[in-house]
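Continuing the series of single-chain predictions for the mutant panel. This is the parent chain; the variants come on the following pages.
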Amino acid sequence: MKTCRPRDLPIIARVRPADVASQRVAMRAGLVRAEHRDTCGEDGLDWIFVTDLSG
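Parent structure:
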């Protein structure tokens, strides 16, 4: 299957700190925690996971 997503664009996941299952999914998808990007969502804190573009 061919993807149309340019390699230089990040994928971002917003995950609740208590949602351990979603954190695992994000990490298995190759995302890394970006603590400096954590933000308050509509109803609480969101942890941010992003693609690791360093390598």
